[in-house]
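Pasting as-is:
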Amino acid sequence: MAVLEEGMAGNWDAERASQAMESAACFVNQLRELEKQFTTPTIEAGISLENVRTCLKKYTNKRKTRTRPILKTANMACQCLLKTGPTSKGHVTKLPSMTGEEFICPKSLDLCLAEKLENWPWDSDRVKFYEKPVDRMN
């Protein structure tokens, strides 16, 4: 199934699973950064509203920066599937001469740059297996 329309949502919604998971990881990473700024006695006294707003603003900006290329790729893929627009014509014209790697890598790179939990103590061999191709593409 192809998504026919993509856009920038004003508010983030958890109904889109992969982006919701990335958003959750990004949010946790931002909260961990905020937590590092405080010692235990200070954090018990509370975090200022200004610090929370700054943390949320960083989160929002990071997510918007991350999702723009994904939305662009999804839009291009939809146009190509529907064979509409100049993007589709240009892409379809190049297809016969493209290698599989030339076709897949640029689109996969955006997806491979997904946010993950930083300093996750339970990385597994499977996680490391999937990180290797990402490191090669970067």
